[in-house]
Amino acid sequence: MEDLLMVRTFGIVGCMLIISTITARLNKTYETFTEKLLTILGAFASIIMVWVFGDIYPNNIIA
Predict the structure, then answer these.
(1) I want to staple 53 with a disulfide (CB 3.0 to 4.6 A). Which of 19, 28, 40, 63 is the partner?
(2) Mean of the per-residue pLDDT values for the chain?
(3) Is residue 53 classed as helix, strand or coil in its secondary structure?
(4) Domain boundaries, given as residue ranges, for the chain
(5) pTM for the model
(6) How far apart are CA 10 and CA 54, in angstroms?
(7) DSSP 20-42
(8) What is d(CA 53, CA 3) in angstroms, rounded to the nearest whole number?
(9) What would the pLDDT profile of 27-42 be if each residue is shown by its tens digit?
């Protein structure tokens, strides 16, 4: 059952990343290099947090 939660979470995060990447390319959302870097690093940090805290109940809700 825990694996299902992890698959769903990765699916949601992955879809959010794909959608935000496509819209950012279309709209040229990033105004500065720092904003672009923080957005990309934040997305990867979210994925890593989901991967690390996927099996720990209270933390997987926060991640």
Answers:
(1) 63
(2) 76
(3) coil
(4) 2-62
(5) 0.45
(6) 10
(7) HHHHHHHHT---SHHHHHHHHHH
(8) 12
(9) 666 677 888 888 888 8
Round to whole Å and give the CA distance between 37 and 3: 31
What is the C-alpha to C-alpha distance for residues 24 and 51, in angstroms, rounded to an integer?
A: 25
AA letter at 49: M
∠ at Cα 50 (24, 10), nearest 5°? 60
pLDDT tens for the 63 residues of the chain, in order:
557 777 888 888 888 888 888 777 766 666 778 888 888 888 888 888 878 777 776 665 665
Give the CB-side neighbour count of residue 58, counting CA atoms within 13 A: 0
Among residues 11, 10, 15, the alpha carbon closest in space to that of 52 is found at 10
